[in-house]
């Protein structure tokens, strides 16, 4: 299937459907304060009850990233004219995103600093993208705040990226664990903000200390024991591969691009599972459950979408990445549950719930009456946005040998 295929799914429409469902179901003002936005962690649940739940800083950071995705589509493309994702009478995605940064800072006790460097890295990456969106839309509101957020977080990354254990970035302020979840997004942040030397150093550390050559994937991390020894945490998670891939692509150069192509192949070979799809069996990305794990596959897909349209990569690699994104998105779309009008969740204006698994429909994971977590719904939205970004990428020129699927 090529991008010119008229029978291709309308991924932008599907992404808008997900965006409307998630923002209407989970979005609310913070403490009823005007000019703020925050996402509830669980529905159905009252506004005050949600504010008393544990604080999930990094879920909000990925909510911000999803809003920026929708905001970029609102700008339009040669194939799709721009329009607000939720109608002209509701705030744009960019405006909600700006309000969300304000909400996160207020909810986090008037600061964007917390105890986990990976959390802060996700917020920094999303805020960086929000600021670029504001620049592209010529919106000046919030840009001074964005700059302060990024300045504050950069100082945190500088302090956490040390020579202990030979390099890498600490996971938390306990400074007893250096891992892929912190090192990879910090490397990507450095790469995107011009600090290429630091970014490359972090990637080289990951390759030297946490790369598992048998599978071609990155393990979780190195923990410093009570005796000062480094203890390897060997678990391989889907989401850890995503920001490594993103940083390799951002830095470029033949060695990094070669590693990126190999990583796409490794993901396809080891992190997929079969699922029935449109009358065929497709290899879709595995999911990692609920809670924090409910975001993991969405994060990986975000960066596979970048590989799918990167013309520096071999055509076969791009095709593999695109197929992983599109088939995973199709599985989540096919498995959605349409909410009947009497459903408690539908009363908030949402009409879709997505599964937390690519191989089973939402009616199994979230039957009528079940509580729905924000993380899994953000994941589905993120995957649909990734598919939309591939579909909206500039068409290949003759001779480009550009394949997508």
Short description:
The chain has 405 residues and is mainly alpha-helical.
Largest sheet, spatial ordering of strands = 4-7-8
Low-confidence segments, ≥5 residues, pLDDT <50?
397-405
Total helices: the number is: 14
- Main pleated-sheet profile: 3 strands, antiparallel
- Summed over residues and divided by their number, the pLDDT gives a mean of 93
> First CA to last CA: what distance?
5 Å
Order of helices and strands: HEEEHHHHHEHHEEEEHHEEHHEEHEH
**Helix percentage range:** 40-55%
Give the overall silhouette.
globular
Helix and strand composition category: mainly alpha
Overall radius of gyration: 20 Å
3D architecture notes:
This protein has 405 residues and is mainly alpha-helical. 51% of the residues lie in helices and 10% in strands. It has 14 helices and 13 strands. The chain has a three-stranded antiparallel beta sheet. Strand 9 and strand 10 (280-285) form a beta hairpin. Helix 3 runs parallel beside helix 14 (374-391), helix 7 packs parallel to helix 9 and helix 11 (296-308) packs across helix 12 (315-334). It is globular.
Structural key phrases:
14 helices, 51% helix, mainly alpha, three-stranded antiparallel β-sheet, 405 residues, 13 strands, two-stranded antiparallel sheet, disordered C terminus
Please outline the helices and strands.
Layout: H1 11-26, E1 27-28, E2 38-39, E3 42-43, H2 47-51, H3 57-74, H4 93-107, H5 117-136, H6 143-160, E4 177-179, H7 180-192, H8 196-209, E5 211-212, E6 217-218, E7 221-224, E8 230-233, H9 238-251, H10 254-270, E9 272-277, E10 280-285, H11 296-308, H12 315-334, E11 337-338, E12 352-353, H13 362-365, E13 372-373, H14 374-391
Helix pairs in contact: 1-3, 1-14, 3-4, 3-5, 3-14, 4-5, 5-6, 5-7, 7-8, 7-9, 8-9, 9-10, 9-11, 10-12, 11-12, 11-14, 12-14
């Amino acid at each position: 299937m090529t991008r010119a295929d008229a029978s291709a799914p309308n991924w932008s429409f599907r992404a808008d459907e997900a965006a409307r469902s998630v923002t209407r179901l989970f979005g609310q003002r913070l403490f009823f304060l005007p000019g703020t936005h925050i996402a509830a962690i669980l529905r159905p649940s009252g506004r005050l009850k949600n504010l008393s739940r544990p604080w999930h800083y990094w879920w909000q950071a990925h909510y911000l990233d999803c809003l920026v995705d929708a905001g970029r589509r609102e700008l339009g493309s040669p194939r799709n004219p721009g329009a607000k994702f939720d109608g002209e009478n509701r705030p744009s995605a960019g405006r909600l995103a700006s309000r969300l940064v304000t909400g996160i800072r207020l909810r986090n006790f008037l600061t964007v600093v917390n105890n986990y460097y990976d959390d802060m890295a996700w917020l920094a990456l999303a805020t960086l993208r929000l600021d670029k969106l504001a620049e592209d839309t010529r919106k000046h509101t919030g840009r001074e705040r964005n700059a302060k957020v990024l300045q504050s977080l950069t100082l945190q990354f500088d302090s956490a990226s040390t020579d202990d254990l030979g390099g890498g970035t600490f996971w938390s302020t306990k400074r007893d664990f250096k891992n892929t979840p912190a090192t990879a997004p910090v490397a990507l942040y450095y790469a995107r903000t011009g600090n290429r030397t630091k970014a490359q150093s972090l990637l080289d550390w990951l390759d030297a200390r946490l790369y598992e050559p048998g599978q071609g994937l990155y393990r979780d991390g190195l923990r410093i024991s009570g005796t000062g020894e480094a203890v390897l945490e060997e678990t391989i998670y889907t989401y850890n591969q995503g920001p490594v891939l993103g940083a390799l692509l951002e830095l470029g150069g033949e060695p990094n691009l070669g590693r990126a192509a190999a990583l796409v192949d490794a993901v396809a070979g080891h992190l997929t599972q079969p699922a029935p799809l449109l009358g065929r069996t497709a290899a879709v990305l595995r999911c990692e459950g609920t809670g924090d794990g409910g975001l993991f596959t969405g994060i990986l897909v975000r960066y596979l979408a970048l590989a799918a349209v990167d013309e520096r990569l071999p055509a076969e690699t791009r095709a593999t990445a695109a197929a992983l994104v599109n088939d995973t998105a199709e599985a989540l779309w096919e498995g959605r549950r349409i909410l009947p009008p009497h459903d408690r969740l539908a009363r908030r204006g949402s009409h879709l719930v997505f599964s937390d698994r690519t191989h089973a429909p939402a009616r199994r994971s979230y039957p009528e009456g079940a509580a729905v977590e924000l993380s899994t719904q953000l994941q589905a939205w993120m995957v649909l946005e990734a598919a939309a970004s591939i579909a909206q990428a500039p068409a290949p020129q003759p001779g480009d040998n550009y394949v997508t699927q």
